[in-house]
């Protein structure tokens, strides 16, 4: 009679590795910060089989009407909790009601549909918002980086729902030809995918160096490997396809204009989406937009300048009377009061940037 197989030690080893994981510990802290701020999770199934995971504000959980509903869309290297945890309490204190989804193939959101375009992401978010109990009829949208692409399509496809827009380091005006022209730190989509979906410590170190104006000096390899294992190994194929759908064949001439008032926020030292793309977007949108440059910040504005970014978002959304560069004297005066004393520099796109 053959001897029974020896019990596997993989499962206990995996449990101990998860218990000692600094990345998972931080993930739990971010989740607790959402819950302690009063937000509650919800999963919204859609007719096409997609499921969008949401964090709902306290007002939505009790069925009350929020004062200023705002939809917060995370970037490519994050989930809802990792991107927005530090912003929740200040936004809530300012009278904003944050709705925070995981985009498709991030966090707990997924879809069986083959469409990988940001337009499909926007359609899923809009459908999920409409399906929520006591969902707001109109809301502001804030999109960071990749989330800004989704926010832009959301504003174009659902103008009745999107009241105003904040785009943070969102290179929606990029063209595929910009890669070969040397505007970016990568030369093609494949290199961009290997950088934004790092599977090796050296790739993550390079990404951090490009993302931050002042990258952290101390990055132990054990922490980097743990971060990659937890944050960068799920849905790699699908996320790579998202990048190809985002960049492949992209032309500025195909980008529609949107009618909503739009605040564009950019890091002065952004090396992922260079500042030229912010200026290009300002020219594309014209008088309905305003470009704000944050000094001493790279692409990771939310990490390097969270207080300034949070203040800009609060001021722009909480006071709908603020319309940048319109002809309303009171609105312009109000905007100037709000930004006085900050380390921000407003840019006229008709003048040189540097």
Automatic annotation (TrEMBL):
<protein>
    <recommendedName>
        <fullName>AB hydrolase-1 domain-containing protein</fullName>
    </recommendedName>
</protein>
<feature type="domain" description="AB hydrolase-1">
    <location>
        <begin position="70"/>
        <end position="311"/>
    </location>
</feature>
<dbReference type="InterPro" id="IPR029058">
    <property type="entry name" value="AB_hydrolase_fold"/>
</dbReference>
<dbReference type="InterPro" id="IPR000073">
    <property type="entry name" value="AB_hydrolase_1"/>
</dbReference>
<dbReference type="InterPro" id="IPR052370">
    <property type="entry name" value="Meta-cleavage_hydrolase"/>
</dbReference>
<dbReference type="Pfam" id="PF12697">
    <property type="entry name" value="Abhydrolase_6"/>
</dbReference>
